[in-house]
Amino acid sequence: LPGLHVFAIALALEVSVGKTNTVMALNNSNVLLPCIFTTCIGFQDLVFTWYFNSTEMIYHGKIKSKASEPFLVSRNPRVEFVGSTTGKDNNISIVLKNVEFSDAGKYTCHVKNPKEKNAQHNATIFLTVVQKMVETDNTLTLIIVGVVGGLIGLLILFMLVKRVVLKECLVSSSGNDNTENGLAGSKAEQKAPPKA
């Protein structure tokens, strides 16, 4: 079962860049490139590296243990480490300063954990650099969502009211004593079982 053991180890180390893997930045601004890692069995002498377009190393760091912050091994002068690993999240995010159009591309956050038999994992984020941000108008989307949500709410309310009214009708009709009216099924007409 050595293959199963390797499979379990591979699932223990995870690296993530958040909910979306695309980031847009203004030319000449600073941009955060997020990255966090999780590990089930902890880490020791963990190595993390950020790559630009898979080949150019822009940040290389090492973390002794959970009790210590990462230390720099090497980096591009325009890259600043902004994460922290002694807190709850194992955050190894960086900030790229004074972004230029040539910085657009693929950024990979790569993590290697010797404590997990050198398990490796990475996550990728894509950076787009623009001259100016374009504001999107979400008014129509908000109107549609509001109308659909309102209709669903009305439908649920209608179903609840119908259920309560139907339940009250059943309870009140089954509880009537119709002996005065001489209606079929009244309590007076119930016959005893025949004797043999």
TrEMBL record:
Keywords: Disulfide bond, Glycoprotein, Immunoglobulin domain, Membrane, Signal, Transmembrane, Transmembrane helix. Residues 1-18 form the signal peptide. Residues 2-126 form the Ig-like domain. The chain crosses the membrane at residues 31-52, 140-161. It comes from the Eukaryota. GO terms for molecular function: sodium channel regulator activity; transmembrane transporter binding. InterPro entries: Ig-like_dom, Ig-like_dom_sf, Ig-like_fold, Ig_sub, Ig_V-set, Myelin_P0-rel. Its main location: membrane. GO terms for biological process: cardiac muscle cell action potential involved in contraction; regulation of ventricular cardiac muscle cell membrane repolarization. It is found in: Membrane. Gene3D superfamilies: Immunoglobulins (2.60.40.10). Residues 176-196 are annotated as: Disordered. GO terms for cellular component: voltage-gated sodium channel complex. It is a single-pass type I membrane protein. This is SCN4B protein. The gene is Scn4b.
